[in-house]
């Protein structure tokens, strides 16, 4: 099935459907399960998304890489039996619109609320995501309150980025922010961040743009309607416990996630919307 000159619907050997984008400006793959982008290659440049070599693309299981959508909560819920990072990344989303212009392919999907377990999310709402695929990638996650009472949520666009050497990779632009790590803090971030151990920093009061300096070049990561973000690398021991993750793959990836967490939790009033967005590009 083709949606435009550059977009067709394809399927993995395991049966998962995805949008296969091959436009003059970029290549991309966006899975209907989880509305998860796993590839974004600007023309003439390398992939901005990282995916584990052990990923097997199974139904009901989030892909280890790309941009999983953590919604409507980030991390472990206070109810320990509920799924970590919410449920949106494991549900099959509905394709809403595909358009193509000279400067971008736009693909919109929505989360079918009929599939949502009311014990997890009893609110009347709409959740949509739009991917704007051009020389850079923009992802826009929009919550709309269709009910009569406000609701609150935490969320993240859990972006996995590639690097050829995590030990020679740094993140700039977090100076001045505060972070909590392993339940301790808040601490002040005063310098660039390097990697020499397991890293799981949840930042607040963060500037809207960060840059990841890798041996391959600089990746610029921007956020809108977000003053929080998460920086993660599992390092040696945790890598051995992760599913769909090779023991040494921590050396070639990191996550820098646009988020609404902690003091940046979102409350959406009746009839209102909130859009969390992230933009990534090679600089």
What does this 3D model show about the protein?
InterPro entries: Aldose_1/G6P_1-epimerase, G6P_1-epimerase, Gal_mutarotase_sf_dom, GH-type_carb-bd. This is Putative glucose-6-phosphate 1-epimerase. It is an enzyme of class 5 (isomerase). Its EC number is 5.1.3.15. The two termini are about 35 Å apart. By secondary structure, the chain is mostly beta strands. The chain has one helix and 23 strands. Strand 1 (about 1-5) and strand 2 form a beta hairpin. The protein has a single domain (about 1-280), classed as Beta-galactosidase, Chain A, domain 5, CATH 2.70.98. The strands form four sheets. Strands 6, 12, 13, 15, 16, 17, 20 and 21 form an eight-stranded antiparallel beta sheet that branches. An eight-stranded antiparallel beta sheet has the order 7-8-9-10-23-19-18-14, with no helix packed on it. A five-stranded antiparallel beta sheet has the order 1-2-3-4-5, with no helix packed on it.
SSE topology sketch:
Elements: E1 2-4, E2 7-11, E3 17-22, E4 26-31, E5 36-42, E6 69-70, E7 94-100, E8 105-110, E9 125-133, E10 137-145, E11 151-153, E12 155-157, E13 160-162, E14 170-172, E15 178-181, E16 184-188, E17 199-204, E18 209-214, E19 217-224, E20 228-233, H1 235-239, E21 253-260, E22 266-268, E23 273-282
Antiparallel strand pairs: 1-2, 2-3, 3-4, 4-5, 6-12, 7-8, 8-9, 9-10, 10-23, 11-22, 12-21, 13-21, 14-18, 15-16, 15-17, 17-20, 18-19, 19-23, 20-21
């Amino acid at each position: 099935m083709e949606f435009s000159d550059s977009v067709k619907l394809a399927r993995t050997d395991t049966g998962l459907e995805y949008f296969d984008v091959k436009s003059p400006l970029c290549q991309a793959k966006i899975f209907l399960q989880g509305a998860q982008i796993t590839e974004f290659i600007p023309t003439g440049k390398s992939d901005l998304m990282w995916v584990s070599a052990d990923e097997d693309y199974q139904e009901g299981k989030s892909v280890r890489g790309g941009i999983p959508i953590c919604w409507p909560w980030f991390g472990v819920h206070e109810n320990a039996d509920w799924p970590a990072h919410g449920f949106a990344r494991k549900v099959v989303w509905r394709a809403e619109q595909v358009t193509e212009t000279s400067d971008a392919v736009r693909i919109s999907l929505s989360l079918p609320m009929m599939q949502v377990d009311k014990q997890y999310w009893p609110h009347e709402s709409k959740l949509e995501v739009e991917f704007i695929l051009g020389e850079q990638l923009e992802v826009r996650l929009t919550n709309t309150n269709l009910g009569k009472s406000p609701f609150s949520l935490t969320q993240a666009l859990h972006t996995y980025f590639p690097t050829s050497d995590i030990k020679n990779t740094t993140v700039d632009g977090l100076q001045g922010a505060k972070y909590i790590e392993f339940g301790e803090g808040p601490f002040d971030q005063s310098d660039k961040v390097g990697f020499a151990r397991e890293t799981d920093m949840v930042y607040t009061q963060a500037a809207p743009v960060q840059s990841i300096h890798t041996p391959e070049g600089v990746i610029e990561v921007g956020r809108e309607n977000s003053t929080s973000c998460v920086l993660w690398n599992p390092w040696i021991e945790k890598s051995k416990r992760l599913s769909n993750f090779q023991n040494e793959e921590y050396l070639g990836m990191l996550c820098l996630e646009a988020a609404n967490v902690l003091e940046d939790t979102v409350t959406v009033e009746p009839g209102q919307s909130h859009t969390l967005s992230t933009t990534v590009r090679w600089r």
